[in-house]
Write a structure and sequence with these properties.
The protein is mainly beta and 789 residues long.
Length: 789
C-alpha cells in the first residue's frame, strides 16, 4: 500500500470512527415532540392515537372491535377517499401509501377520529458548538466543533425503548467533498434535547461533546452534506426518505481576506470578507492612501468592527463561523489602488497589539502570527442615461439613469435653471425624475448629474465650480400637428372621420362649421352639428388622433362644411385665451360673439384669435368636405349566358363598411341574393362589388336592386341568355345522311325572244343560315324594346 493509499485509509477509518456511532432515540423524544398519546411501539392502539405510514405489527383490536375490519377516511378531511383494510387486528401494518389524516371505523361519514395517520418525519439542525448559529449554507474553518439536533415527530412511541433495551436509531449520513459517503449512529444523552457526536463516540457507548471537523478526524476542505433519516430496522419499519440536505463548507483555518470586487466606482463601498478562526479578533489596516484626509477611504463602524479615529484601521471580530464582513466607504477617496491588510496577533516595537491597547499605523507593525492582504482599485464613478434624444416642448420627460456607485444624485439642467436635489437611487443603482418642459424654448439642453454632492440648493448656478459625474443633452422641439379626412364627401347621418398626429399636447380641439354658420341667439348649450357649429376635444394617444363625428340630426344642413383641427402653443394655451385658466381649452368662453355669424366669419374670428396673432405658435389645420343625401348607384351590368358569373358593381357616398344587399327585383326567377360592403379606394367616392351565380338562372331579362338598408336604392337591368349548346360528337363508323332537297319548278315568262338559257334554281338555306337569321331577329327585338323605354 503506497503512502497516498495509507493516508486515505487512515482518513477513512477516522471518519468511520465517527460515522459508525449510533444515535439512540430514547425518552428524550417524548419530551421533545409529544404528538401522540402513545407511549410505546408495543402498546395497543387506543382511539385517537396517531399511527405512522410504514409501521408494522400494531394492535388495533381495541379500536376496531369485533364487528369491523376497515378504517375509512373521514369525509372532507385530508384522508377522504382513503380506506385501510385490516386483515389481523392484532398485527396491523400501516401502508406506506395510506392517505394522511383521520379515519373512522364505521364509515366515511363517521365523525370520530378512531385513528390518525401521519407521515413519519425527522428534522435536524447543525450548529456551531455552544451557539445557536446554524452552519447550513455557511463556511467554517477546519477544526470547528459542531452539534447536531435531531427532532423526529414520532419520538413518543419510543419512550420505553431504553427500558426495553430496544433502541430506535436514526442514521446520520455525511457526504464528503470527494464523493465518499459515511453513515453513523450514536446514543443520546437522555436529559438533553440535542445530539452531540464525537470522533470516538462508538467506544463504550460514551457520549462525546462535539463533531470534530479537524484534519486529524479526516475532514477535507470543501462542501459537506448532512442527511438524517430513521433507521427502519430499529424504528418499527418507519422509513423517512426525507429530501432535506444540510450543506456547509469546511475551509482552511488560515487567515485570509477577499474583496467582493477588485474595482469599485468612487462612492461605492468596498466589501471585504475576512476568514479566520471563530470568535477571534484580527487587526485591519488600509495602505496606499494619499496625504489628504478628505481624499482617503474610511472603514465603516458597524457590528463586530471597532474603527480608529482616522478610519484607516480597525479591530474586527469574527463570528462563530470564523468570518466577518467589513465595508469601506470611498465617497471622498482619491482614485487609486488601495491595499487592505489583515493581521493575526500583530506586533509593533512595544509588543503585541490588542483590541484593548489600541491602534498603530500599518508601517509600525513589525511582525504577526499570520497575515493576508487584498488590493482594491477606486475608479471614477460612471453615470449612464436612458432618455430620448429629443422631445416636444410641453411634454414631460422622464430622466432615467444608473450610477456605478453612490446613494443619491443631483440632476442639474442649467439652461432651464432646474435642479432635482438628492434624488435617491434604488437597489439597482438607478434613478428617475420627471421634468416638465412647458414654457421652455426650442433648442438643446444639457443635463448634468452629480453623485452624492453636498450642494444643497435649487439654483443651478451654484454647481458651476463642481465637476459633474455624468452629462448628456436633449433637444426640445416645437409641437407639430397634422390632420386629414378619410372622405371628402359624407352622406347625411354617416360619420365624418378625422385622423392625424399631434406632438407636445395631450389633447387637440376640433371645430366643425356648417354651411349657414351659427344661428343668431345661439349659445354654448346649442353647440352641435345640427345647429351648424360643433366644438369638441379629442385625446392624443401615442402622438396620434382619431375622431368620428356623426353628421346629422334635426335641422341639419347639407352642403359645404369646414373642419378646423387646433393645437395650442408650448404654453398650453391659445394666444388670446385667458392666461389665468389652468389648462384645457374653453372656446365658447374665449371666442365670444360667434352666434349669428356665417361660415366665413366664424373661420376668420378663430384664425384671428389663434394663428394670426403676431408671434403665435398655435397650430391650425383647415379641412373642407361636402355633406349630401345618401345614394347608391348601380353601374350598367353586362349580358351573360346562363351559368356564367354575373358581376355587379356600383358607387355610393355611404361610409366604409355599409352593407349593400343586391337582390332580384323582377325576372323569370329569383337569382341568389348577394351581400357586400362599401369600400373607399379614393377620398371622393365609395364603391361596392358583388358576383351572382347564374348556374340555375332561367334565360330572360332581370331587374336587380341595390339597397343600403336605409332607404337608398337603385336598379339595373341585365339579360341572361340561353347557354350556348355544345355540338354532339358523331359516333365513330357512322355516316350522317345528307338531307335531300326537292327543287321548286320555275315558270319562265312568255316573250318573243330566243329561247333563254335556263337559270339554276337556288337550294333552300342550310342549318347555319337558320341560326344566323335567328340571331339577327333576337338583336332586332332587343333594339326595339330599348326604344320603347
Amino acid at each position: 500500500m503506497n503512502t497516498k493509499e495509507k493516508e486515505k485509509s487512515k482518513r477513512g477509518k477516522a471518519i468511520i470512527g465517527i460515522a459508525m456511532a449510533a444515535i439512540m432515540l430514547a425518552s428524550v423524544f417524548a419530551a421533545m415532540v409529544p404528538i401522540s398519546a402513545r407511549d410505546s411501539v408495543t402498546s395497543a392502539i387506543e382511539q385517537g392515537d396517531v399511527v405512522y405510514r410504514g409501521e408494522h405489527g400494531l394492535d388495533v383490536s381495541a379500536v376496531l372491535g369485533a364487528t369491523s375490519d376497515t378504517f375509512y377516511g373521514i369525509a372532507d378531511s385530508t384522508a377522504d377517499g382513503g380506506r385501510l383494510t385490516v386483515a389481523d387486528a392484532t398485527s396491523f401494518n400501516v401502508p406506506t401509501t395510506a392517505k394522511v389524516g383521520p379515519y373512522n371505523k364505521t364509515s366515511r361519514e363517521g365523525k370520530t377520529a378512531d385513528i390518525i395517520v401521519e407521515e413519519p418525519e425527522v428534522t435536524a439542525k447543525v450548529y456551531i458548538e455552544g451557539t445557536t448559529d446554524s452552519v447550513v449554507g455557511k463556511s467554517i474553518p477546519v477544526g470547528t466543533n459542531l452539534t447536531i439536533r435531531v427532532e423526529p415527530n414520532f419520538g413518543g412511541i419510543l419512550s420505553d425503548a431504553a427500558a426495553n433495551g430496544s433502541w430506535g436509531k436514526v442514521e446520520i449520513k455525511l457526504d464528503e467533498p470527494g464523493g465518499g459517503e459515511y453513515e453513523y449512529v450514536e446514543k443520546i444523552n437522555a436529559s438533553a434535547q440535542e445530539i452531540k457526536v464525537g470522533p470516538t463516540a462508538t467506544k463504550n457507548d460514551v457520549v462525546w461533546d462535539r463533531l470534530d471537523t479537524s484534519y486529524d478526524a479526516g475532514w477535507e476542505k470543501g462542501t459537506w452534506k448532512v442527511k438524517i433519516v430513521a433507521d427502519k430496522d430499529t424504528c418499527n419499519e418507519l422509513g423517512t426518505p426525507s429530501d432535506d440536505v444540510y450543506e456547509f463548507t469546511v475551509r482552511s483555518e488560515e487567515l485570509s481576506i477577499e474583496a467582493e470586487a477588485d474595482e469599485v466606482g468612487k462612492g461605492e463601498d468596498m466589501i471585504i470578507t475576512v476568514n479566520g478562526n471563530p470568535k477571534t479578533y484580527y487587526y485591519l489596516g488600509i495602505t496606499g492612501v494619499g496625504p489628504k484626509k478628505a481624499e482617503q477611504p474610511a472603514i465603516k463602524d458597524i457590528a463586530d468592527v471597532t474603527v480608529s479615529p482616522c478610519k484607516l484601521y480597525a479591530w474586527i471580530e469574527t463570528g462563530s463561523d470564523g468570518t466577518v464582513g467589513v465595508r469601506i466607504g470611498t465617497k471622498g477617496a482619491d482614485e487609486r489602488t488601495y491595499t487592505i491588510n489583515v493581521y493575526d496577533k500583530p506586533e509593533n516595537a512595544s509588543g503585541f497589539l490588542t483590541e484593548i491597547t489600541g491602534f498603530a499605523p500599518d508601517s509600525k507593525i513589525v511582525d504577526s502570527a499570520d497575515d493576508d492582504d487584498v488590493d482594491v482599485k477606486v475608479v471614477e464613478a460612471e453615470v449612464t442615461f436612458d432618455i430620448p434624444a429629443s422631445t416636444v416642448i410641453g411634454e414631460e420627460v422622464t430622466i432615467k439613469g444608473a450610477i456605478s456607485a453612490g446613494d443619491k444624485v443631483d440632476i442639474v439642467i442649467e439652461d432651464a435653471n432646474t435642479v432635482f436635489d438628492d434624488v435617491s437611487v434604488d437597489e439597482n443603482d438607478e434613478f428617475e425624475e420627471d421634468w416638465d418642459t412647458s414654457g421652455l424654448t426650442r433648442g438643446s439642453y444639457t443635463i448634468d448629474v452629480y453623485i452624492d454632492c453636498d450642494v444643497d440648493t435649487e439654483e443651478a448656478e451654484n454647481y458651476e465650480d463642481k465637476d459633474e459625474d455624468g452629462s448628456t443633452s436633449i433637444r426640445l422641439l416645437t409641437g407639430e400637428l397634422t390632420a386629414k379626412q378619410l372622405r371628402n364627401v359624407v352622406a347625411e347621418d354617416d360619420d365624418y372621420t378625422i385622423e392625424g398626429t399631434a406632438t407636445g399636447v395631450d389633447d387637440v380641439d376640433i371645430i366643425l362649421i356648417g354651411p349657414k354658420g351659427f344661428p343668431p341667439g345661439a349659445d354654448e348649450d346649442d353647440l352641435g352639428v345640427e345647429n351648424g357649429l360643433e366644438i369638441l376635444s379629442t385625446s392624443v394617444t401615442d402622438d396620434e388622433i382619431s375622431e368620428d363625428i356623426e353628421m346629422g340630426g334635426a335641422g341639419f344642413d347639407t352642403g359645404r362644411w369646414i373642419a378646423l383641427v387646433l393645437s395650442p402653443g408650448r404654453d398650453g394655451k391659445y394666444e388670446t385665451q385667458d392666461r389665468a385658466e389652468a389648462g384645457g381649452l374653453k372656446l365658447v368662453d374665449s371666442f365670444l360673439g360667434l352666434d349669428g355669424k356665417n361660415q366665413d366669419q366664424i373661420l376668420a374670428i378663430i384664425q384671428d384669435m389663434t394663428i394670426d396673432v403676431a408671434g403665435s405658435d398655435d397650430l391650425l389645420v383647415p379641412l373642407t368636405f361636402k355633406v349630401e343625401s345618401g345614394y347608391v348607384e348601380l353601374n350598367p351590368v353586362e349580358t351573360v349566358g346562363a351559368g356564367e358569373p354575373l358581376n355587379i358593381s356600383g358607387v355610393t357616398n355611404r361610409e366604409p363598411g355599409t352593407r349593400i344587399t343586391i337582390s332580384t327585383f323582377a325576372g323569370p326567377t329569383e337569382l341568389p341574393t348577394a351581400f357586400t360592403e362599401v369600400e373607399w379606394t379614393t377620398t371622393d367616392e365609395g364603391v361596392f362589388t358583388a358576383t351572382i351565380d347564374t348556374t340555375d338562372a332561367v334565360p330572360g331579362t332581370y331587374t336587380l336592386e341595390a339597397d343600403d338598408g336605409d332607404g337608398n336604392t337603385d336598379t339595373a337591368t341585365v339579360e341572361i341568355l340561353t347557354a350556348e349548346a355544345t355540338p354532339t360528337p358523331t359516333p365513330t363508323g357512322e355516316v350522317t345522311p345528307t338531307p335531300v332537297v326537292t327543287p321548286t319548278p320555275t315558270v319562265p315568262p312568255v316573250t318573243p325572244t330566243p329561247t333563254p338559257t335556263p337559270t339554276p334554281t337556288p337550294e333552300p338555306p342550310g342549318f347555319e343560315a337558320v341560326f344566323a337569321i335567328a340571331g339577327l331577329l333576337a338583336v332586332a327585338y332587343l333594339v326595339l324594346r330599348k326604344r320603347r323605354k
